[in-house]
Structures
1.
Amino acid sequence: MRLKNIKGAKEKINESPYIIKHPEEYKGKFKTIFENSNPIHLEIGTGKGDFIINMAKKHPDINFIGIEKFDSVILRATQKLENINISNLKLIRFDATEIESIFDKEIDKVYLNFSDPWPKNRHEDRRLTSKRFLERYDKIFKSKPHIIQKTDNRHLFEFSLISFVNYGYQIINISLNLHEDDYDNVETEYEQKFVSLGMPIYMVEVEK
C-alpha cells in the first residue's frame, strides 16, 4: 500500500483537524477527544481511508480511530476529509508495533483490513494476527476482545484462523467469498479493486 514519498506530507497531515498529533497523551482517555462515552472502534492500517470514513458516516453512535504508519498514505485519507465534518472520526499516524503505548483498555472492536501478509515464514511475527500482536491487543480492549479481518490473501487468512483459535478466540462469522454472502460490508479501496478483478475476499470475525 505504500506510496512514493510526497514532499511536505508530514506537515500537511498535521494540519488536518482529524489527526491526533500526540496520541500518547490520551492513553486511557480517548473518550475525552470525542466528548462522549460511545464505543471506540479501531482500524489498524487505515490506508487511504475509504473504509473508516464510510463506517463513521454509517454509524454516528460509534467513535472510530484509524491508525496508519505511512505519511504518504494517511495523507490521502486527510485529503478526502477536507471540508467534511465527521465528529466521530480521528486518525493517528502511528506504527501498530507500539499500539499498547497509546491505548489502554478502551477499544471495543478492531478491524484488520488487507494487512501486509508478510509471506515469508521468518516474518510471521510481523503479521497483525500473529500471537505477538494478539498479545498487544489484549492490552487495548475495553472488555471482550472482538476482531474483524478481511484479506485477499488465502495464506494469511489460513494463518490467521489458526492463530485466533490457538489464542482462545471463537469464530462467530466467516466467509470464503464475502461479496457472494449476505453480510453488511463496507469496502476498502483495495477491496474494490480486488472484487473488480473477480478475486474472492476472505473475512473472519472473532471474539474471546
2.
Amino acid sequence: MRKLSLFLALALGLFALTPSPYLQAKPKPRKTEVAAEPAKIETPVAISPAALRWSMKSQEVYDVYGADIDEDYLQKRQEAQPGVQTKELENEIQEVKFAFWQSRMSFGDTATKYDGTKLRPEYSYRNGEMLMSIVRQGKTRYLFFIKDRLWKIIDVYKLGEKSKFGPDYKTAIDKLTKLMVVPGRARKADPKKEPPNDEADWADGKTHVRAADWGTELAVVYEHIETVGRLAQLRTAKQDLEENEITPSTKDYIRP
C-alpha cells in the first residue's frame, strides 16, 4: 500500500511539474532588425560624367552634358562630309542639347506630369526644387536641384533578360552587391513613411546610394549626404498643392 501511495505521489508530482504542450506559450516571432545606417563602402562612389559635382548649378550641369554630347558625336563629325551633311549633323547636336535644357521642370505652384509616377516621393513643391532629364546609354537620368543646386540623381534602368542588371530586382541587387563589395542595407517598403519601395542602400562619406524596386525597372538613386541632412531647413513649405490649384488639363496629363 505504501509503495502504491508513493507511486501515485510521484506520478502526480511529475504530472504537475510537466506542463502540457498545449498550454505552453508560443514563442513570439523575432522581428527582422534593420540596420540604423546604410552599408558603408570604402571606395568613393563614382558618378559619370566625371565632371559632375554635387551643388553644381543647373547651367553648370548643362555645360557638362553639352561637352559629353559633343563626345557622343565625335566620330560622326569626323565622318561627315563638309557642307550640307555637316550642317545637318550640327543641327542635330544642337537639338539634343536644347532638348536637355528644355527638360527642366520646376515644382512650384502648379502640378507636374511627374506626380503620377514613382518619382513623386523624391521632390516637394514650393521649395525651389526642379529637375532635368536626359536619356543616354540605355538609361533615363533625372537630375534634381534644390535652390538651383544639384543634390540628387536617379538613373532608371529597364529590367529584363537583355538588361545589364538582369531580369528582376533580386538579380540587380546581387550585381550591385558585387560592385559595392558589401551587401546593402535591405529595407522593406512602408506606405506610411520611407522608403516607398523595397530598396537596398549604401553610403560613402559624400554620397548615399539607394537601389529601389520599381517593378519592371530598377532605380539607382544618388544623393548628396550633406544636402539630405539639411532638407528640413531647405524645405520650409510643408503643405502640398491643393486640389483647386491643379488645372483640368494638368489632371488629365498626370493621371496614372
